[in-house]
Amino acid sequence: MVLHEGRELTTAKVRTTGFEYVFPALRGVQAGREYFVTMCPLRLIPRLFVFDDEELAPEMRAQRSLNRNRVPEIARYMAQNPTNYVFSALTASVDADVSFESFTETGSNERVGILTIPMSAKFVINDGQHRRAAIQQALSESPHLGDETIAIVLFLDVGLKRCQQMFADLNRYAIRPAKSISVLYDHRDEMSAITRVTVFKSPFYSDLTEAESNNLAARSRKLFTLSGFYNANKALLDGVAEDSFERRVDLATAFWETVARQFPEWGQVRNREVSAGEVRRDFIHSHGIVLHAIGKVGNSLLRQTLERRTWEKTLKRLDSIDWHRSNSNLWEGRATSGGRVSKSTGNVLLTTAVIRKALGMELSADEQRAENALTRGEA
């Protein structure tokens, strides 16, 4: 982008409109409307793109109010990954008469040219306001990022109603990716890496774990999800005194290998003796809530001792628990609600309490409070 007064950089024409923004741009047509794609230095983003007045009522704005709690996290992502962060394009509207001059009059290059916008124009972000705020914060901490660029998709503003409709349309089909596939693809997060290695280097678990979806179809031959193991490993290794990535992987691998031996039904599924759907239907032990609870119990065992023979002996008592879903006296209100598995924090605590009692372990303070509340009928 270039700022100038009067002179067009690529032609001999002289403008009389005063100061202007000049962007190299691509021109396109969508739904019969002209729009432009360009790039802008990060240092200019806070100056050019403004928020609607958040004090206005929602019906008078063209975007949602800014969730300021999200901004520091995005800014940290930029600061901590200066050589490999990635941002998608911002989408914005401009409320001014713009002019576009293509480099050629015919051929494919007629869509490539110079977009000129009066400096009096107002730019409003339709999609990407949290990225915009994070860029502003990141620049205050890392000014050198200012010369880097971000893509801008720029629409011509046709009023508040149209801008509100654009916001609704841009977010209509936005779906957050499943946690499982995020764990599969996330190479920054150590716990994701530990979970991938633990699962995929195990012939047993790799064969039975769904790596893309958080939910298992009725006919799926998988017993577990990658997201379920992520939550379980996070609970298992929380605060465990092992700094080495390799050692943490070894601990998690040994732990889950021991757990697998306590559930013969899991082996029957892998050997094709019973279907995964039958086991998920009749038993509760392959569901994510139980993996999470076992991880929490395992964390206590690992904190007490890293000696494998000691905690292996304790884990053998898992087979003393009646894991049938039909045992409503044990599981209803704890792992299930109305017969359906529930993954709330309270349910995880109550499920963990059942396992701790069976293994002869003391309940944590949170688990005891959850048990007391259940007994009083408050859960």
TrEMBL record:
One Pfam short name: DndB
Domain of life from the UniProt record: Bacteria
Classification via InterPro entries: DGQHR-contain_dom, DNA_S_mod_DndB
Record-given protein name: DNA sulfur modification protein DndB
